[in-house]
Predict the structure.
Amino acid sequence: MRDDFAGIRAERDDSPEYGHARHSAPARRNGSLSLQVALGVWLGGVALGLTWFAVHLLALKTGLLAGLGL
């Protein structure tokens, strides 16, 4: 069992088929990442608030919340 991997060697593969060089510079982003995260959090909160409002309004119109006293 110990000699199963005896003939295997690791070789460096710098072939161009992977689409990038090994030590390429990181790509620059347009805009600020923190601004994008803040905008995503804000838009998620707005969407959640609008969804809650629509569900609550629908529940009031159908009388689902009448028995709960809400």
Q: What stands out?
A: Residues 1 and 7 are 13 Å apart (CA to CA). Residues 33-62 form the longest helix (30 residues). The radius of gyration is 28 Å. The mean pLDDT is 79.
